[in-house]
Each structure stands twice: as C-alpha cells, then as structure tokens.
Fold this sequence. Notes:
The complex is a heterodimer of chains A (about 525) and B (about 210). With about 525 residues, chain A is α/β, with parallel strands linked by helices. Chain A contains 19 helices and 12 strands. The longest helix of chain A is centred in the middle third of the chain and has 43 residues. Helix content of chain B is about 35%, strand content about 25%. The mean pLDDT of chain B is about 85.
Amino acid sequence: MMSMRACASVLLVCLTLVSAPLRAQNPPALRWGGDAEGGAPYVEADAADPTRVVGFDVEIAQLVASGLGRIARFVQVGFTSIDAAASRGDFDVGLSGIEDTPARRARLAVTVPYYEFREVLTVRSSDKDRYRSLADLRGHRVATLGATLAYDLLVDAERRDGIVPVTYEDDVHPYSDLVLGRVDAVVLDAILAQRGVRRNSGLTNQPAALGVGHYVGILSAEQSGLRDRMNAILRDAMRDGRLERILRRWDVWNDDQPRLYARVLADNSPYPVSPSSLVSSTTAPDAATMTPEAMRTLSPPDTWEAARRYLPALLRAAVITIVLSCLSMGLAVITGALIASGRVYGTGPLRVVLTGYVEVVRGTPLLLQLFVLYFGLAAVVQLPAFLAALLGLGLNYAAYESEIYRGALEAVPSGQLDAARTLGFSEPQTFFLVRAPQAFRLALAPMTNDFVALLKDSSLVSVITVVELTKETSIFAANIGSWVIPGMMCAAIYLAMSLPLARLARRIERGWRHG
Amino acid sequence: MATRMSVLDVRAMEVRRGARVIVADATFAAAPGEIVALMGASGAGKTTILRAIAGLEPIESGTVTIPRPVGMVFQFHHLFANMSAHRNVWLAPVHVLKQPRAEAEQRAHELLASLGVGDRALAMPHELSGGEAQRVAIARALAIDPHILLMDEPTASLDAARRADLAATLRQLATQGRTIIIATHDAEFARACAHRELNVEGGRVHVVS
Lengths: 515, 209
C-alpha cells in the first residue's frame, strides 16, 4: 500500500512537471525542420555558438513563426529524408532550400515560393570557352546533388547530350572534385555555384541559366490550413520588404526576386507559379521552352508508371551492388586470410602491426573510411570512385574476415596438427592440406553472414558518388515523393540477391557433411 | 639398458611443462621387432614420454636416439577430419615421401585391407567407429614405413574381442621387424602382446619384468 501511494505521488509530480511548461508556453513553438549540413547561406551552425543555427532559411522561419505569434524552434533533419519527416509531422514546416517539385505538391502541403534560383553550369576556368553548355560535355562527367531539379536536368541531358551524371550527397565535394578533375562540370543552384566558386579557385560559372526553380516551405498534407496562414505571412513579407531585407543580408538578393514576388502577389491561389522549368541553355530563363522531359516533371507522376520506368535503372544499380559486393568480398577474403595467417604464424612485430590494423578498422566507421579514401587522399592519389568503394569495403571487411579466420584456425584441434607433424608434413603443407580446409569449413557460416552484411553495407558508397541500388532507390523515391513502392522494389531485389547466397552456403556445408 | 641391437635409445630424458617436471630421468631402449609396454596409472607421464619421443614435446635434458620417420597412433586417433579414410593414409606418402600418387593410393588400399577396414576407405573420419578409426590411424602411421610405431592407449575405445584382434595385429607387425612402444594402463592387453613391460610412475621408468 505504501509503495503504491508513493508511486502515485511520484506520478503526480511527474505529471505536474510535464504539464507546467505546456501551460506556460501557449501557443506551442513552431518546429521547423532543416539540415544544418546544408550550410550557409541556408542553414548552418553558428560559428560562435554551434548549438544555434543561422542562415536566410533560419530568419524566414523566425519571420513565419512571429507572424503566427509563436517561437521558432529548429529541428535537425537529414536533407534526403526531409520529405518523409514532413509527412510524418516531425516538424511543422521544412525550410532548407527545398525545391518546388510536382512530386512535393502531390504529397505535401507546399507554401508559395520565397526565392527563385537559376541552375548554373560551373566549369574550370581553363575550360570556360570549351564547355559553355551541357551539349558541349558529351561523354564527360557532370556532378550534382542527388534528388534535385539539377539531377533531373542531368538525366535529361544524359539522354539528349550524352553527358555522364555523377551524384553527390552534399554540395561541397562536387566543386572540390571539379578542381581535381574527377568531374568536368557541376550543375547546381546559383547560390551553391557562387559559394563553390568563392571557395575553390580556378572555377567559373557560365552565365546562361539551365533551368529555373523555387524554394518553398513544406508541411504535411493535412496542414493546408497552417500552410495558407504561412502563405499570407510570406506575401505580407514580400509586400513590405522584410523578405528582401533578409535575402539582402545573406547576399542572395537579385533581380529575379521582385519579378517572382510580383507573380506571387498577383495570383492569390496556393500555387501562383509552376514548380520548375528547364531552359535550353541558349535562351533566357523567362522564355521557358519546355522539353518533353520538363513536361513530365510538371505533372505528378503516376506511381506504377514510374515503377515500370525505374525498374531497369534499379536492376542496373543492382548489378553495380552485386559486382561491387563480390569484388569487395574477394578482396576481404584474400586480405583477411593473409592477416589471419600473419597473426597466427607471424613474429611479434608483425602481429602487433596486424592487430593494430584490425582494431583501427573495426573501431572506426566505414563511412569515415570511405570519405578518407575518396576525399581525404584526393590530394595525394585520386582513386576513381568505384575503386575507392571497392578498396574501402574490401579493406574494412578484411578486418572482420581476418578475425573469423583467426578464430577458425585456432579452433582446429591441436591433435590434427600433432598428427600432421608426426607424419612429417612441413608447416605450409600442414596449413594448406589440413588446417586451412578445416578452418574454412568453420568459417563458412560467419562468412556468408558477412557477405550478406556487405551486400547491404555497399549502400554506403553512395557518399562517394557510386550510384548503387539504395541510392537509385532514393532517387526514385524523391522523384515520386514516396518510399513505399521504391522501398518494396529495393527490398525485393536485395532479397533476390542474398537468399540464393544463403542457400549456396548451406549446400556447400551439406556437401562437406556427406563426404 | 641400451643393447647393441637397439633401434630406440632414450637416456635420462626430462620433460617439463613450465616449472613442473612431467618426465624425470626416463631411460630405456627397444630392439627391432620388440613390443614394449609402458605401464602406469593415468597422469604417470606415459603419454608425454611417447610425445617427446615423437618430437611433439621439447626435451629439457637427456637424449633420444630414434630413426625417422616415427609412426604415431594417438589415443583419439586424430584422423584428418577434412578427408576420407583413404586420403588420410596416402596423403603423407604423396606429399612427404613424394611417392607417385597412384602407387600411394594402391598401397593405402592394401594397408586398410590388411587391417580389416578396406571397405571403409571412402568413409569420413566422423563416420567411423572407434575401432575402425584406430585401424585407419594405424594404417596411416604405417604408410610412411616407420621403424618404430608409438601407440597411446590403443585399447581405450575397444571391446574385448577387438582388443584380442589388435594384440594379434601388433604381434604380426612385430614379426615384420617393427618396434612398437605402447603406452597403456591395460595390464591384460600388455601381457597379451608385449615382450617387455616397463612401469612409469611419477615420470620415471622402472623395469617390471
């Protein structure tokens, strides 16, 4: 009885503590989502106080929040999952340089645009006269950020002009790789392009716009009421110059904005301007000449039709995944076997070095290792992306394989080795004829396990521009604005690759048991 | 104790494991065709003496004079688990003695047949009974033509009838001139086949008969 009363009073205290701030803070804060990794001028951690964020999206969020009589509270969201987070209701509104696309309009409540940007072609200054448009880049690698208007533009140009699109997960490395010569051009928003040119010497932005897009705020589809109130606040801010002051403060104001605001203010509907347009490289952005591909992006794509269209791309990406996984596993098995042999048979210093390798590789994230291999070493040796992915995965898994083999070698009964010694076998003969075959048998089940894990870990290499199955799926998902169908297709393909493998391993094991 | 005729000559052999003395001052010899039984309770040091003679244990002091190769049959056989009975037998002749493969395989068949396990040639070690595994292990040891056969507790996994069979087999091998050293605590078996019994106690070897 005593304890029940004690519990009840504790519960009461808790309830009071929880409800107190709720009562005090009325109305609740406006939670707004963004990705601080996107950096300036959108959203970035304040250099003076990294717990705070600064940027024009931050100030627009504050502007909207104060219009609603609420306080803005930042929620960090990875840029690629910002749509999913918005529809889940992880935040009230997403503001992070988010592009207006038909897919977003179809699945989310989207605010009026608050900024108009041009897609810009960036090249090395020495190529300034050679590569003026995408048509000049046939057969060359052109970088961009995945799942953006610029990416759609490059996919279009791949078919039309024969360029090779290369997708990055961030907007910094396309420009550094352009300097290094890994790619020959970058297509991104003018804001990012100007930042890229500022940070890297020897780059030039071509003057012609390749397309025009808009930044918007996104809310879950049920929040159209809140969206309409936000639209009114944004329109007010366009009228009275508060939006202009914010954009000027971040040095992104230009003549395109007053024209955009005039169109937004002239039409009071939720969607006063079309989501985006691709512009042929020679014409001015206002004279939007639509290619058939551009027309496609204007209507929300039908999911099943899109699934049918994306299936070949997914299967191609699956081939990348399986080839990369098989080669990496091969490298991991050979390197792992050498490391294990060195640790079992080697001398003291060799063992120390190999143990150090295993501990360092196992103790640090694979993602970090891939970054170091591809970007970190770029100043010394420029590995092609696929080779860097292969080395990263292979050398990482080698550490795990070596532990499996070492355990398996040590698990072979010492009596087997005694018998081999009395029969006169040399150490290498004992190893290859007796110890290794028995160890391999013990190692097979954990090896199969590791291969399946590697198959899935290979998705991490998308950070170094290799488009494999998961990356292709996320591009697909971004295009149609939903993960349901792409996710199921992706899972089905992964299973189709991993299940036969498990069966094969079981068959090998059964074969051994019978002789 | 060494006779003029001895093939095996162990003198003042000492084996330690760490600070512990396992075998202290073991001295004995064996003649060609002689079967010698090392008798004693478990833990007396019999197995360690055999392992030291076979070169599997480092000797602290003393000498062992023995012609190589040495055939060793372990108590738990230690047949190579990853291959058939037949391959267990021909592997060393081919890889160590560099005999032609076909010849070694033929010889392995003959050895297995002569030990009564010719029909088990293709079986994997885990498919063999204790007695079968032991005969395959004997065949494997004999395949490298050793002058001396060392056997550790050979009757441990055998019933009475099999024990009698084994005694006869060993006698047969001895008449071909092979020296056989048996470590056993089975007094009855030792009487049935050994020419001479030595008692091992606390790592020391004493003459019994």
